[in-house]
Task: inverse folding
């Protein structure tokens, strides 16, 4: 019997290698297509986030909104995103990753239509709330779906596309918004939502979710469709099924389960990265970049164009190296750059407040902000979402991922709300605070965050939750 077993292994190995070699050109095709339709949701996310800046003056004039009414319109996006974050995890577990993305797309479409047809503040606000809900749900389910369908060799690079498309959506919305009316811009916002909704009918569901639901035939069919018809999926399918079988013996996850000892490290890693990503100042600086440049005496329009281009370019250049450099080194390099950028900006405003070297103030301000946004785009922007999509066991992924996304959106609201108050208190002190928080992020990453590069999701669980 042992001879037969040994012999079959000797015969099988070259055949597996041959099959893998034959299937290599076709293997990523369906993964790429699935990722494309998923990140259409990320582009929709960016379109929602970038809408209010170019549309602000026109909406206020056309609908006679006060500053307070428009401020409410802007903030409802974040509140809607919080609701989306809370509910997206359970929805993704109940109806699948594709189903959750369809729900997100539908909310965004309804929201954009409400904004387009709005004659007053009520319809406008309801539309903004709906797009916020869709945006918050997309922010959770897109990286989760990509992580669950992608091979381990380029999972990080594909997951990073989520952040690239968010940045691109923001930049495109800002540029197009200077060329068309706010109602037309709302209609344009429907395009990526519709592309995602319709495209999801052409791609397979997450094999890991299908396995979790006990749909074994569909699970293997989806995995084969993703890996290629000639690929040997037996080992990967067995690993996924063994892991799911182990999880099935565990009770269904509830909110309090996140604080059990076996999950606490996963929760700490994901929640910690989300806290440092947001409280390091990104949304305050992003939302009020023009104000920062204006206060520093740098041309606002030029600064915004440089900012938008740099954000997309750095994020795009970062994607191919995620699976080579690893998650942890990118987080460390990024956080270090954030500290440096904040300190340079702090020096700029310190000089301005004390009337020292006035010619250096605008130069230092723009250099500090560009170092900051370039560093954020190089790691801290995308990596927390990549790690979150990998770090949770699948039985708590819905609850834990939804809560981590909620923490992220709460941080986004808190930082964007308090930024102007902090700048009024002390412009250079604001950036010193952000520098200190990003310095703590470096310590956190070194001490707590594991390297997940080149590991399957099941191997990551064994590492993080032994």
Result:
């Amino acid at each position: 019997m042992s001879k037969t077993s040994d012999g079959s292994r000797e015969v099988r190995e070259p055949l597996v290698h041959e099959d893998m070699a034959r299937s290599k050109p076709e293997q990523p095709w369906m993964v790429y297509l699935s990722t494309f339709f998923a990140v259409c949701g990320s582009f929709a996310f960016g379109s929602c986030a970038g809408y209010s800046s170019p549309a602000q003056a026109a909406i206020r004039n056309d609908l006679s909104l006060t500053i307070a009414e428009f401020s409410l319109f802007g903030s409802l996006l974040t509140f809607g995103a919080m609701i989306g974050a809370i509910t997206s995890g359970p929805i993704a577990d109940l109806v699948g990753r594709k189903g959750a993305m369809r729900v997100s797309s539908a909310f965004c479409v309804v929201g954009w239509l409400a904004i387009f047809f709005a004659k007053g503040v009520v319809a406008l606000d309801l539309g903004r709330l709906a797009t916020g809900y869709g945006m918050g749900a997309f922010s959770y389910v897109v990286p989760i779906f990509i992580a669950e369908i992608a091979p381990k060799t380029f999972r990080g690079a594909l997951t990073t596309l989520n952040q690239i498309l968010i940045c691109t959506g923001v930049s495109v919305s800002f540029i197009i918004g200077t060329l068309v009316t706010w109602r037309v811009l709302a209609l344009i916002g429907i395009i990526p939502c519709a592309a995602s909704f319709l495209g999801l009918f052409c791609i397979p569901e997450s094999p890991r979710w299908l396995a979790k639901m006990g749909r074994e035939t569909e699970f293997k069919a989806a995995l084969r469709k993703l890996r290629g018809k000639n690929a040997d999926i037996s080992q990967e399918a067995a690993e996924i099924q063994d892991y799911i079988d182990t999880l099935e013996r565990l009770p269904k996850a509830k909110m309090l389960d996140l604080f059990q000892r076996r999950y606490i490290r996963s929760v700490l890693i994901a929640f910690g990265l989300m806290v440092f990503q947001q409280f390091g100042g990104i949304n305050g600086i992003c939302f009020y970049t023009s104000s920062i440049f204006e206060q520093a005496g740098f041309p606002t329009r030029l600064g915004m164009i440089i900012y938008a281009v740099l954000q997309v370019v750095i994020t795009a250049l970062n994607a191919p190296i995620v699976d080579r450099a690893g998650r942890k080194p990118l987080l460390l390099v990024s956080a270090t750059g954030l500290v440096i950028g904040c300190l340079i900006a702090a020096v700029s405003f310190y000089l301005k407040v004390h009337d020292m070297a006035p010619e250096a103030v605008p130069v230092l301000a723009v250099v500090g902000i560009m170092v900051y946004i370039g560093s954020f785009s190089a790691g801290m922007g995308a990596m927390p979402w990549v790690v979150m999509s990998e770090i949770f066991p699948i039985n708590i992924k819905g609850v834990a991922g939804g809560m981590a996304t909620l923490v992220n959106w709460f941080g986004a609201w808190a930082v964007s709300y308090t930024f102007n108050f902090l700048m009024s208190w002390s412009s250079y002190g604001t950036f010193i605070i952000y520098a200190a928080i990003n310095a703590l992020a470096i310590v956190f990453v070194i001490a707590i965050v594991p390297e997940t590069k080149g590991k399957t999701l099941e191997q990551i669980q064994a590492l993080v939750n032994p």
The two ends are 35 Å apart (CA to CA). The longest helix spans residues 67-117. DSSP finds 21 helices and no strands in the chain. Residues 276 and 440 are 8 Å apart (CA to CA).
